[in-house]
Each structure stands twice: as C-alpha cells, then as structure tokens.
Amino acid sequence: MSGKRLHFIVGKGGVGKSTLTAAMALAAATPRRRVLAVELGEPGGLCRLFERIPNEPGAPLEVRPGLSIAYVEGDTALSEYLEIVLPIRRLLAGVFASKIYRYFVAAAPGLKELMTIGKIWFENQKTGPD
To answer: Residue 12 and which of 44, 46, 95, 103 are 20 to 30 A apart at CA?
Structure first.
C-alpha cells in the first residue's frame, strides 16, 4: 500500500469498486494496522462480499482480524455534522423533522455526498495511528 491513511475508490456503477476496495483492505490489514473499508449509501457490494452488514450506519463491524467494514449514509452524516456544529439537541430535533429541512437536503446538489466524505475524513482524523 502507499502508506497513505485514507484512500477513495471512485467510479461509475458496475466497474468493480467494491471488489477493489475489499482487495485493498485485505492486503492492507495486518495485526499492527487496522483497516476500515467504508461504503457510501445503503449496504451494498462491500457488505455482500464479506457477507456481513453492520448494525447501523457508521458503525464499524470487524469481518477479519484488523479489518472492519462500515457504510455511511448521507442523511446520517449530515445529522451528525449538524449535531457537532449546533450542539442544541432540542433545536436539532425540530430542524430534522421540518419539511423545509428535508426539502433543502433533497434540493441541494451533492450535499449528502459532501457530508458523507466529511464524515469519513472526520473519523480518520480522530483515530490514532494505524
């Protein structure tokens, strides 16, 4: 592996992103280096390849020693981001339930994707060296 802490595997559907991600994760995982392979959106190809599905979005599930998988959904990542930025839970509950919020999130191009990538970067930054 390149020695980098974070890799993004991108491309259009059906080109082997999940297979490549699984292969890279298996190759990188060692007893001394923990690896987290993350899938964007609903559980899909990566979860099928390892025949396991994490209990909830963002929750890592160890599938082999040193290797965990997770999936991150845009709505969940956006909610977590807003909780960090606006730590007033009562206010947030009202915001998340409002039709205006749902309309804005649906209408803003790329917002969920941006929040998903931000969630992955945030989690990568807060962990120790591996």
So the answer is: 103
